[in-house]
User: Fold this.
Amino acid sequence: MSGVNVVKSRIIAKLILSFLIATSSTGAYALVAELVNYVSQYQVGVDYSNAIDKVQLSYNMTATGGVPDSCQIVDGDPTRKQCTVGMVGGASNGWGVFLQRAFKKQGLFYFNPDVSFGARFLSGELPAKDRSLDGLPLNNASFSLGAVVMKPYVQFGVTPDSWPDVLLSMGPAIQMAIGKMTINDQSENVAVGTSSVSGPMSVIHGFFALEVVLKRFGDGAFSLIASHDVTGNGRGTKIFPHDVDGMSDFHGSFSRNVDGMAYGFGLKLVTPWP
Assistant:
């Protein structure tokens, strides 16, 4: 075969390959285009607020002796008691950066479903005052967890022309966390999934936020914000896999509060960029 024919064959092969890739990837390209379009609707924002993460840890043990204030008899089993202790998983006070979709006014009343994602690092331990409390066997509990939180929500409120916008957001909260947890002297790598969803009406109990928008400028806005989210109805979900020193059935419930010094609200600025 001559050199010219070899070159022609290679060109034809490349064209055919390109055509096959293009036709087979149309769906993928469309998906990427939709994703890029969705992400492009987000604006860069900064906030100044106080945030605190808490973990409510509960466990069961034999009901010997008295029942301290931090425990109660397990329903249906008078031989067992359930004890609860709270731990701080993280706290911050200062500036933060976030992404938020641009606001689109709908008239006097506003309604829009959306979803929010967040990442957190939770690290805490049992307070010294709660160690071996009233003779309980729990003398150490600590955790270091990386968590991802998803909050599907609906936002609604009033957006008049001459008064500040007032917007409420509510919906469920779902968290996945992995890391290490220690109970007394036993440490384990754990993966924990917690959710506020436990029934038809619980989907609105996980996440709540109140925002008062004082000023809008293009796609930007300046507002006051306060929010609360909790994953884990009741006792939450199983958080430690083994029995330790007569304790069993370890469960955890996670919560986060955001507020600030401005009449209990944090400050939030959404920029008109990009």
User: Anything to note?
Assistant: The first helix runs from residue 3 to 24.
